[in-house]
Amino acid sequence: AKGDGGNKYQFYANSMSLDALDSLRMEGALRRALERDEFRLYYQPQVDIATGAVIGVEALLRWQPQLGPMIAPDDFIPLAEQTGLIVPIGDWVLATACAQQKSWRDAGLPPLTVSVNLSARQFQHRDLVGLVARLVRDTGCDASSLALEITETAVMENPQAAVAIFRQLSKMGVRLAIDDFGTGYSSLAYLKRFPIDSLKIDRSFVRDITDDTDDAAIVHSVIALAHSMKLKVVAEGVEDARQLQFLREHGCDQMQGYYISKPVPPAGIESLLQNR
Ligand code: C2E
Ligand code: CA
Ligand code: CA
Ligand code: CA
């Protein structure tokens, strides 16, 4: 949106970088988006590799402005994180995902674990455990069918705090997954201290799994080590049958990716389950 403000912004542009100005405008737009209820959750199915059953979904945030095309999270979450707006946005995501899980259960759909992405800011901000407990109570969703995904990098910002929060969430029955595994600097030995249920292998490793021997070796050893620690392994970004074949042969537990389905609105999950 650089330059579309015309001369009106000349005064500011002199004292502030254009990027800062863009950020300010964007921050205002994000605030209004929350007030106007412009956020949506899409859901991507997660499949049990051994049985082919859809056993869960990952909730992925979208911004649908009243006018214009839908906006992907990579285009607004970084700013939402910087400004702290990710906290109220994240509260909305959690509440919406919990309500969705309850409504699918009431509709008689097979039980689905709904996974929600958490940012580091939501972790540090305040009483995440209290918030989740309240949401589970208020929406009537099933805590053990709720999974929280947090990136390896976010965990490593403050591992002590993360361990404490994870312990409390885990006591409530909430499932915990380390997201984008392999892109950060933690070691599996270190993660042993965390009461987590699964690791999600980042898409960047899955992409070339059938051509790149290094990526193949990484995925292979992550699966073996994770299993030795009784963790489930979920592969993200599976796009074709050969990748799936590799993962199956190496005992990966679950997968998600365009090969099965892109993220879709809730109704898309319902028809996917009815047609399987
Ligand atoms: P992520 O958690 O690693 O999510 C996986 C991303 O990969 C999603 O992008 C998904 O649409 C995409 N993806 C899934 N399968 C495939 C595939 O087969 N091929 C390709 N090329 N891509 C695939 P999306 O929805 O654009 O989300 C991007 C990132 O934004 C997420 O990465 C996550 O870090 C963040 N995000 C999304 N929703 C939320 C949210 O509610 N809260 C927070 N804090 N972050 C979120
Ligand atoms: Ca994720
Ligand atoms: Ca990822
Ligand atoms: Ca990510």
Terminal residue distance:
43 Å
- What ligands are attached or bound here? ligand C2E, calcium ion
> The biggest beta sheet, please?
8 strands, mixed, barrel
SSE order, one letter for each helix or strand: HHEEHHEHHEHHEHEHHEHEH
* Helix-and-strand structural type: alpha/beta
The average pLDDT score comes to 90
Number of strands: 8
Q: What can you see in these coordinates?
A:
With 276 residues, the chain is α/β, with parallel strands linked by helices. It is 48% helix and 18% strand. The chain has helices at 10-15, 18-35, 77-83, 86-106, 120-125, 128-139, 152-157, 159-171, 188-191, 203-206, 213-228, 241-249, 266-275; strands at residues 39-48, 54-63, 113-118, 146-151, 175-181, 198-201, 232-235, 254-255. An eight-stranded mixed barrel has the order 1-2-3-4-5-6-7-8, surrounded by four helices. Helix 9 links the parallel strand 5 (175-181) and strand 6. Helix 4 (86-106) runs parallel beside helix 6 (128-139). The longest helix is centred in the middle third of the chain and has 21 residues, at 86-106. It starts with 9 loop residues before the first helix and ends with a helix. The model is unreliable at 1-13 (pLDDT under 50). One calcium ion is lined by residues 180, 202-203, 236.
